[in-house]
Design brief:
- By secondary structure, this protein is α+β, with helices and mostly antiparallel strands.
- It folds into two domains: about 130 residues, Nucleoside Triphosphate Pyrophosphohydrolase (Alpha-Beta Complex); about 70 residues, Arc Repressor Mutant, subunit A.
- Helix content is about 25%, strand content about 30%.
- The chain contains five helices and nine strands; from the N terminus they run E-E-E-E-H-E-E-E-H-H-H-E-E-H.
- Strands 1, 2, 3, 4, 5, 6 and 7 form a seven-stranded mixed beta sheet that branches. A two-stranded antiparallel ribbon has the order 8-9.
- The longest helix is centred in the middle third of the chain and has 14 residues.
- The chain is elongated, with a radius of gyration of 21 Å.
- The C terminus is likely disordered.
Length: about 230
C-alpha cells in the first residue's frame, strides 16, 4: 500500500491567526485588555490576545481558546470584526488575522496571563501603550464597530448586569460615545425602543431617590446573548 503523502500545492499558503479586542467598562471609563508578549517578534511589547489557528478548529473556537489561554477569560460575547491581511504585517511569515470584538460584562473581571503571554492587564482606551503588529488599527476598527452598533442593537447591554437603572444605562452610552447625553431625551428614546421592561424593584444610590430597575425583555435578552 502506498503511504499517505502531505498535500502539495502550487501556491504557498498563508498562516491564519485570530486577534481579540476585549472591551470593558471599569472605573467609569472604557478599557481594553492587552497582553505582554513573551516571545519574539515584539517580545515584551503589548498586544491583543490571540494566536494561530489550529488546522482542525474553526475561527471562533480559536478566538475563544486563545483568549482563555492567554488571559483566563471565557464565556464572553464574541463577534467577528474584520480581516487584516496587509503584506508584512507579521515579520515571521505571511499571516492573515481574523479579528474579533469581545465585551466583558459589569463586575470585576480578573485576568491571569498564561501560555505565551508574560502579562495581561486592562488599560484605559485613551491611555494605551505602544502596540505590536498592526493592533492599533484593529483596536480603532473595533471601537468604530462598537459605537456604530449602538443605534440599532442591544450591544451596550453587554456592559450591564442583568438588572440596571436608566441612569446606569445612560452612563454606558455616554462612556462609549465619549459625550454627555440629555437625560430626558435619552430616557424617552430608551423606553420607546421597547427592548427593556421594569422589574418592579428599585435601587438606591446614596441619598438619592430610589431608581427603578429594568432588564431586557425576554426576546431581546435572547438576541443579545447569542
Amino acid at each position: 500500500m502506498s503511504q499517505a503523502k502531505p498535500h502539495c500545492y502550487t501556491h504557498p499558503h498563508p498562516a491564519v491567526t485570530t486577534d481579540i479586542a476585549v472591551f470593558a467598562i471599569r472605573d467609569d471609563a472604557l478599557h481594553l485588555l492587552l497582553i505582554r508578549r513573551g516571545n519574539p517578534p515584539f517580545e515584551g511589547a503589548w498586544a491583543l490576545p490571540g494566536g494561530f489557528l489550529d488546522i482542525d478548529e474553526d475561527l471562533e473556537t480559536c478566538a475563544a481558546r486563545e483568549l482563555a489561554e492567554e488571559t483566563g477569560l471565557s464565556g464572553l460575547y464574541l463577534e467577528q470584526l474584520c480581516t487584516f491581511g496587509a503584506v508584512g504585517r507579521d515579520p515571521r511569515e505571511r499571516v492573515i488575522s481574523v479579528a474579533y470584538l469581545a465585551l466583558a460584562p459589569a463586575g470585576e473581571r480578573s485576568v491571569q496571563a498564561g501560555d505565551d503571554a508574560a502579562d495581561a492587564r486592562w488599560f484605559r482606551l485613551d491611555a494605551l501603550p505602544a502596540l505590536a503588529f498592526d493592533h492599533a488599527e484593529i483596536i480603532a476598527t473595533a471601537q468604530r464597530r462598537l459605537v456604530g452598533k449602538l443605534d440599532y442593537s442591544t450591544i451596550a447591554f453587554q456592559f450591564l448586569p442583568e438588572t440596571f437603572t436608566l441612569g446606569e444605562l445612560q452612563r454606558v452610552y455616554e462612556i462609549l460615545v465619549d459625550a454627555e447625553i440629555d437625560k430626558r431625551n435619552f430616557r424617552k428614546w430608551a423606553l420607546a425602543l421597547e427592548q427593556i421592561e421594569a422589574t418592579g424593584e428599585t435601587r438606591r444610590h446614596g441619598n438619592h431617590r430610589p431608581a427603578r430597575l429594568y432588564r431586557l425583555t425576554d426576546r431581546e435578552r435572547v438576541t443579545y446573548l447569542k
